[in-house]
Amino acid sequence: MMQKILKFIPAFPCVFKLVTNLYCPACGGTRAALAFFRLDFLTSLKCNPTFAYLVLIAGWLGIGALVRKTGKGTGEIFRFRMWMLYVGLAVFFGFGILRDIGLYFYHYDYLGDFY
């Protein structure tokens, strides 16, 4: 069924990858999402851990919304905090930089787009 859905999603080339011959920080995000939905969490983390972080934060905030909606408490601990954004940006750019270091200096390309 997933193959039928993917036929309708247009594939746009990554301009960053075309210009620099390196992965952009978002490269692998779609593969990470597809692996996550197949319950292949290790592959999802390898492709791009940002997606798993987004799912984790969305779940955390969703629990808070449910707690507030049911009236069982204030759900104060489940509210959005700025550190969540900062950690997400660190994961996003940090992983992108580390992956490109492995690609450029060690020719380690586990996504298989270059080598």
Quaternary structure classification: single chain
Order of helices and strands: HHHHHH
Helical content class:
55-70%
* Cα-to-Cα separation, first versus last residue: 30 Å
Q: What structural category characterises the helix and strand content? A: mainly alpha
Query: Globular, elongated, flat, extended or rod-shaped: what is the shape?
Result: globular
Biggest pleated-sheet summary: none
Strand segment tally: 0
Strand content: under 5%
Low-pLDDT regions: none
Radius of gyration equals: 17 Å
- Summed up, the helix count is 6
Mean pLDDT across all residues, rounded? 89
Can you walk me through this structure?
This protein has helices spanning 2-6, 15-20, 29-37, 41-47, 49-70, 82-106. It is mainly alpha-helical and 115 residues long. The longest helix has 25 residues, at 82-106. The mean pLDDT is 89.
Give a nutshell description of this structure.
The chain has 115 residues and is an all-alpha fold. It contains six helices and no strands.
Name the descriptors.
6 helices; 0% strand; mainly alpha; 115 residues
List the helices and strands and how they pair.
Elements: H1 2-6, H2 15-20, H3 29-37, H4 41-47, H5 49-70, H6 82-106
